[in-house]
Specification:
It is a single chain. 33% of the residues lie in helices and 19% in strands. The radius of gyration is 21 Å and the shape is globular. The protein has 3 domains: 7-111, Nucleoside Triphosphate Pyrophosphohydrolase; 114-205, no CATH class; 229-298, Winged helix-like DNA-binding domain superfamily/Winged helix DNA-binding domain (Arc Repressor Mutant, subunit A). It has helices at 47-59, 125-140, 145-159, 171-180, 185-190, 210-224, 241-252, 258-268, 295-298, and strands at residues 7-20, 23-29, 36-38, 65-72, 85-95, 105-109, 271-277, 287-291.
């Protein structure tokens, strides 16, 4: 007798993040996808254990810090609508230093997928030139006044239009608004529509719903480094204060005031000098610092509450 029960399988997806110099990167495999694979309840004692096992096999990367993000279960994520199965994926964020062996795994700049998120030099021109005009049209096309007002508020909060200020943590809200407005390639693909070449400027699409998972990971990391010292998972054992600042800027997508940043680091007691100095070709050698782990015992929320340079 045929059963009408829906088959649900559990997958594991991970955004593995690294920073090299001033380039925040994510590890991708295949056709612009995050590493992902099935959870086998018979073989894997825990979900995280399963994640670490197959990520090592698939990418050659050994995960260090990892945390669970969210459970993604939208219909049609991995299978077409109407399929008699459903894939629910548990998403993770992992932090690593760049090293891998598998030929199919490669590091990509995460601003390749979210070009509107990088404000380190200036406000990305595409926001005023492409995104806001398209979103205003999306607002105008709302079916009723209430929906129009909601769309307008989301536009202002997400993209700092009107009197709103840019909030670097609203990565997921921005992507979901663009998706709903049909302004990213995934929204057309998921609706069964043909690709639109005009959307190429709004970031490289990813497989399945992996750009949404990556947006969730970036937002989590940007928010968490303000109250936990997770940024040091991305740093070598010894570093200069300028290298630390550039890493924080790379992740947050905003430029920081040098003296204010150094004062904040000093006040938070996050690092300690080593008495050693970095090799330099010219100029005054910079002192090397290291993370001070005792700060975790001294305060419940040590982090870097950074403010953009104005």
């Amino acid at each position: 007798m045929k059963s009408d029960a829906l088959v649900v399988s559990i997958g594991l997806s991970v955004a593995i993040v690294s920073v090299e110099g001033e380039r925040p990167s994510v590890l991708v495999v295949g056709e612009e996808s995050l590493p992902f694979g099935p959870f086998d309840p018979a073989a894997h004692r825990t979900m995280e254990g399963g994640l670490r096992k197959w990520v090592g096999e698939q990418t050659g990367a050994e995960l260090g810090y990892a945390e669970q993000l969210y459970t993604f279960g939208d219909r049609g994520r991995h299978l077409p609508p109407g399929a008699d199965a459903r894939v629910v994926s548990v998403g993770y964020l992992a932090l690593a230093r760049q090293s891998l062996a598998a030929a199919d795994a490669r590091w990509q700049d995460w601003y390749r997928y979210f070009p509107w998120e990088d404000w380190r030099t200036e406000k990305p021109a595409m926001i005023d030139r492409v995104i806001l005009p398209a979103l205003r049209a999306f607002v105008k096309a709302a079916p009723d006044a209430g929906t129009q007002r909601l769309r307008r508020d989301r536009m202002h909060l997400s993209f700092a239009s009107g009197t709103s200020r840019w909030d670097e943590e609203r990565v997921l809200e921005r992507y979901e608004l663009l998706y709903e407005a049909g302004l990213v390639a995934e929204s057309r693909r998921d609706a069964g529509l043909k690709p639109d070449a005009k959307l190429a400027a709004l970031g490289t699409p990813m497989g399945f719903d992996h750009r949404r998972i990556l947006a969730t990971a970036i937002a989590r990391l940007r928010g968490k480094m303000k109250y936990r010292p997770v940024v040091f998972e991305l740093m070598p054992p010894f570093f200069t204060l300028l290298e630390l600042q550039r890493t924080v800027e790379a992740v947050s997508g905003i430029r920081l005031h040098k003296q204010n940043f150094r004062r904040l680091v000093g006040e938070q007691g996050l690092v300690e000098g080593t008495g050693r100095f970095a090799d330099t070709v010219r100029g005054r050698p910079a002192e090397l610092f290291r993370f001070r782990p005792d700060v975790l015992l001294e305060r419940p929320a040590p982090g870097l509450r950074v403010t953009a340079k104005r």
